[in-house]
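ESCALATION

Customer reports they have been waiting on this structure for their group meeting. Please prioritize. Original submission:
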Amino acid sequence: MRARSMPTGSIVRAFAVMCSFIMLAACGSGTVTHNRGIDPPNSGNPGPGGPGGVLPPPPPPPPVTEVTLTGVVTFDKVPFSTTSGAGLDYAATTQAPARAVALEIVNFNTDVAVANAITDETGAYSVVVPANLVVKVRVKAQMGNVQVLDNTSGDTVYEYEDAQFSTGAIEPRLRDLNVPSGWDGTAYSQPRAAAPFAILDDIYRAQQFVLAAVPGLAFPDLNVFWSPQNTPTVDTGIFDTDRVTGDIDTTQFATVDVNDTDHPGIYVLGSADDDTDEYDSDVIIGSWALYYLASFSRDDSMYGSIELKQDLRAAYSQGWQLAFPLMVKGNAVYQDSSGAAQGDSEDTDFEDNTIAGADAGWFSPFSIGAILYDLWDSNEDAADTIAVPFAALNTVLAQDMPITHAMTSIYPFANGLIARNPGSAVQIAALLNEQNIVMPVDDFGTGETNNGGSVNNLPIYTNIAADDADHDVFSTGDEDNYYNALGNRRYFRFTLLAPRAATNIRARAQGAGAANRDPDIYLWRDGEIVDSATDDSSGAPNNGTQILNRTTELPAGNYVIEVSESGNIFPDDPDTETNNTRIRVRISP
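Update from on-call: job pushed to the front of the queue and completed.
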């Protein structure tokens, strides 16, 4: 058999393959450097890629347990119409930020809060909450130590919450919330949820205004009471009874001393189509001003409704009640809505220097309000050529008013301001004169010539001594202007240079019908009542006579006696309306 020959090229290729095989076999006994960390075959270690070098998929990420929930809380804010006297303009409602209010993220199934937050100055909030949980955002009418309560429903704090939703697993989770007004275009047909937050926002503005002048000031706790049932009516005349049914008379700052209440705070009207004040910023901030005076200054006022001619104490504090909100908003027009659909308003311009007209004087809250606003504002007009920062006005409030021996009024305030700003005495006097107020020579208004239309109103304070001398004054009143009216109360002043062991003060009604009169006596020292005699003396042996017989020592100091005919203070009952009553007062030695 003949052997077949192999082509020369094939021989060469075969030889090369054999050599390669021999070389690989020889290399098996040497050291191998592994590229990219891959072990050689049959090494016993399959490597991260597993057999064949294929990488496995990455492990799943850990489950999401928490997400960040963010949002902005707003409320419906209803402004006044740009037409004077036209009340609120619901068509111009905006969504304003609910600032510095408390909110909770609540588990929908358990109603337990899973997170808490406070909104910032833009109404924004941010909290970490459990993922994939059904929750609600609940915003509270609470701003630090200020809260809005429903006095007709057990003093509960107002809250508003949106519909439930899942927090999901993707962050950030966005959830905005707007608190609605309840207005449907013609009437309130839904709950007026925004009202408490509108009230809080006005107080926020007032606080920020003060803090800009007095940084770091800590405000005392404050409760604000609002309800749609709060009406301008009085039922029993007992405040703590009437407040439960909403018969609060007017928006007011109620105190333990004046209202004899266990529930002090600001009470706000909410009677739709009659008188609502939740969107009347000037009314809310004005009431807050009274709280501020009581907290950081001194205010001897008996409050009451704002009238043209009032007791000097009421005129002073209510002058602040009118002027302070104008300072906060930087606008001279005071607005108060009322009427059907809140479509009416009283718009009073305090840049009108004849605001009080013929009733201008130390007894007019409008005169005092105009003076205070003109002192602060930077607009020069007529007698107003001065601009005093609120910080300077506040110094007088905080340091001078608490120590006056007189009752709080425009006189000690003006004196304190002049003493601290002697270079401005002429400008301050010009503002006083413009309102028919004599430049005070002391805190008692000595030298005042404006009698408010009755010679019985001067002097404002009568000097008296423990010498058994009789001093006659007149307590006046009428059915249209009572309780805090000019002339209802009359004042005496005396000084004890040494302590007095016993004091006998007698007030006896004079003239026809004197036996049916009921004088009251209050003894004051630096803004505090140290003694009083107010029991009804009618039918007693000394008819129409009131005696304050103090057997405990009176310290040395300056004192004020307040006397009045009780029937002029509370004239609701026609049988007790006594109008002009002459009262003879003496202090026995």
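Sent to customer with the following note: Residues 316 and 410 are 6 Å apart (CA to CA).
Escalation resolved.
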